[in-house]
Amino acid sequence: MRHRVAGRKLGRDSEHRLAMRRNLAASLFEHERVSTTLEKAKEVRKFAEKLISLAKKGDLAARRRAISMLGNRDIIAYEEGEQARKGTIVGKLFSEIGPRYLDRQGGYTRIIKLAVNRLGDNGQVVLLQLVGEEEGDEKGKKKSQNKRARRAAAYAESVEKIKSRAAKVQKKETVVEEENADEQQDEASEEQAAGAEESAQQEENKEQ
């Protein structure tokens, strides 16, 4: 009977199980997501959340405790085919991951079941990731939405400008047409007056 026996053996001895848990937690903190089996993810999840709770404290004692539990593996990146050191796992845990969850009381990780089974033993493959890791994509979507909104606003503003310019041009054209009509009317009235004067002079000449 397994009364009051916590944890999973995972087919390993204690040293192998501890090393596996450390490696998976370090990979989770480095990449903020890791793909593994469901049983391993459930076992690593508790260990990773304890480390994040230590990182939220941020003091020297918590940092030493985290190093004793997790180790202090370096973060290695490849730049132009060469290895470059980008810090340590504990440094990232205390400087980036811990402050991210200051306003959150637990539940720092998420397990997502994938529609894939592992070859060999047909084990359930899951994705273990930090909560909030997808916020980058959401921010990108918000930025794209903001860009679209700004573009739409700029397009509407340009349309309004074009409409106002067209209205001004049309107004000027109507004013010019009215002025031309007035001039034509004045010319016609002047011609009529001149014709009336000529006809009056002709009548006077006939009477004489």
Record keyword descriptors for this entry.
three-stranded antiparallel β-sheet, 5 helices, about 15% strand, two-stranded antiparallel sheet, 50s Ribosomal Protein L17, Chain: A, about 210 residues, alpha+beta
CATH topology of the domain at 14-133: 50s Ribosomal Protein L17, Chain: A
- The value of Rg in angstroms is 42 Å
In the CATH classification, which architecture of the domain at 14-133 applies? Alpha-Beta Complex
What's the main sheet like? 3 strands, antiparallel
Q: Report the principal-axis shape.
A: rod-shaped
Assembly state of the chains shown = single chain
Q: Name the helicity range.
A: 55-70%
What number is the mean pLDDT?
A: 84
Distance between the termini: 150 Å
Strand order of the largest sheet: 1-5-4
Please identify which CATH superfamily of the domain at 14-133 we are dealing with: Ribosomal protein L17
